[in-house]
TrEMBL record:
Subcellular location: Cell membrane
Designated name of the protein: Cupredoxin
Keyword Metal-binding in annotation: yes
Record-stated family: Belongs to the early nodulin-like (ENODL) family.
Domain Yippee: 197-294
Signal peptide: 1-27
GO molecular function: electron transfer activity; metal ion binding
Predominant subcellular localization, coarse grouping: membrane
Gene3D superfamilies, sorted: Cupredoxins - blue copper proteins (2.60.40.420)
Residues annotated as transmembrane: none
């Protein structure tokens, strides 16, 4: 057995071990528009997708989920020039299954619009910038488009595992230390993902939801990020009321922890728009009010 008494050798050994069990656990699936399905924005919020994109911190490995009625809409990836001019001819990518997933595997600017004529002109369009140093430029006016805009990578399928950036075993001690610290973070994140199958009330640790019931982690709640669940556990549902949300007026009911009565989020009782019907009977739980652990 190798002598691991040397600190550098021990560090190298641990580093190589951690590299072998490295897993992609930092990626997120973002539902485009949060509470809004993919559709033409309402008159009260015409810049819905522009506002949404400015509040996201997308990285390689993340994915965009577009939800919409397949009989009424679609989503296409286009060049910057086509995005500015709302030209839906010859798209880079065309998706129309109503549950379209776009996986991000490279840095850069990405442009999407509806594939239905007239929808882009009504601001059903999305521009995202991925990667450090990538600036989301203003491309709202036709003057901003270059004469010949380049095509961007088309990625469609399962969420990929990013290429390894591990430092070779011949690296210096300082390089190994830096990479080793990165791998330690990955291990802690992996333990969180694999070991915790429950979401609990942050106040009393009462079980309130199962990880397998998560539909989306990209919703927006009253106090920040929120998750959409198909089912909830050990909660009580309050009185129904009409409430103005990002998508307009909805009938919802606040949900409470059955033990400590902390408000956790709300339940969708009724959606008035056809594109929002998929949320009826489902639960939005605030990330700040729940914790994921073996509680």
């Amino acid at each position: 057995m190798a002598n691991l008494s040397s600190p550098n050798r021990m560090l190298a050994f641990l580093f190589l071990t951690l590299v072998q069990i490295q897993s992609k656990v930092f990626c997120y699936q973002y539902k485009v528009g949060d509470l809004d399905a993919w559709g033409t924005p309402t008159s009260s919020n015409p810049q819905l997708y522009k506002k949404w994109s400015t509040h996201q911190n997308l990285t390689i490995g993340d994915s965009l989920l577009f939800l919409y009625p397949p009989s009424q809409d679609s989503v296409i990836q286009v060049t910057e020039e086509s995005f500015v001019k709302c030209n839906i001819k010859d798209p880079i990518l065309y998706m129309n299954n109503g549950n379209s997933l776009f996986n991000i595997t490279s840095k850069g600017q990405f442009y999407f619009t509806s594939g239905v004529a007239g929808h882009c002109q009504k601001n059903q369009k999305l521009h995202i910038a991925v990667g450090e140093g990538i600036i989301s430029e203003n491309v709202d006016s036709a003057d901003a488009a270059p004469a010949s805009a380049p095509s961007y990578p088309t990625v469609f399928g399962n969420i990929p595992v990013a290429a390894s950036t591990s430092t070779p075993a011949t690296s210096t001690s300082s390089q190994l230390t830096s990479t080793f610290q990165d791998r330690v973070v990955i291990i802690f994140e992996m333990e969180e993902v694999i070991g915790a199958r429950l979401y609990c009330c942050s106040n009393c640790r009462n079980h309130v939801a199962l990880h397998d019931d998560v539909i989306s982690k990209a919703f927006q709640g009253k106090s920040g990020r929120a998750f959409l669940f198909g089912h909830a556990l050990n909660i009580s549902v309050g009185s129904k009321e009409d409430r103005e949300l990002m998508t307009g007026l909805h009938t919802v009911a606040d949900v409470y922890c059955s033990d400590c009565h902390q408000v956790l989020g709300w339940k969708y009782e009724r959606a008035y728009e056809e594109s929002q019907k998929y949320k009826e009977g489902k639960f939005v739980l605030e990330k700040a009010k729940i914790v994921r652990e073996n509680c």
